[in-house]
Amino acid sequence: MQLKKEGEAAAEGSRPDPKKRHYALRRLKKASHWASELSRICSAVCDTRSTVEADAYSSWMGGNVLMEREGDWEGTLAAYTRARYEHSQGCGISGCSCVCRS
Questions:
Q1: 35-71 pLDDT, tens per residue?
Q2: Mapping DSSP to helix (H, G, I), strand (E, B) and coil, where does residue 100 land?
Q3: Rounded CA gap, 33 and 19, in Å?
Q4: Cα 10 from Cα 55, distance rounded (Å)
Q5: Which residue of 11, 80, 84, 87 could cross-link 56, Cys pair, CB 3.0 to 4.6 Å?
Q6: Contacts of 97 (CB under 8 A, 6+ apart)
Q7: What span, in angstroms and rounded, lies between the C-alpha atoms of 94 and 14?
Q8: Is the model's pLDDT at 96 over the cut of 60?
């Protein structure tokens, strides 16, 4: 978030720095990669609730990467929709005390 704020602050005064944007996008891609690895490991080892939460997080991070690339809006919407659906599935599992139900 700090990198994004710095990029936006620089964009207000002049042209945005492409190096900072590229660096931030690269970090976001790494975060998305590790979120998918977490999802893969959870599906092999963890209980159902943890697996569903990891899948939702992975979809959300994938949507964030696509959003920042600003090219594939349909893919972005699909990733966010999948994350929301998986999160709602996770809330349906017994023992979940979700505060953010919509």
A1: 999 999 999 998 888 888 999 999 999 888 888 888 8
A2: coil
A3: 21
A4: 35
A5: 87
A6: none
A7: 52
A8: no
Do residues 21 and 35 lie in contact, with contact meaning Cβ atoms separated by under 8 Å? no
Checking 77-83 for CB contacts under 8 A at 24+ apart, the result is 83/56, 83/57, 83/59
The C-alpha angle with vertex 73 and arms to 69 and 75, in degrees rounded to 5, equals 95
Q: Which two structure tokens, joined as six digits, stand for 7?
A: 């990029």
Distance CA 14, CA 81 (A): 35
Whether residue 10 has pLDDT greater than 70: no
Query: 34 is written with which tokens?
Result: 């590790």
Amino acid identity for residue 37 in this structure: E
Q: Max Cα separation, the chain?
A: 52
Which residue do the tokens 């900072």 mark?
Answer: 20
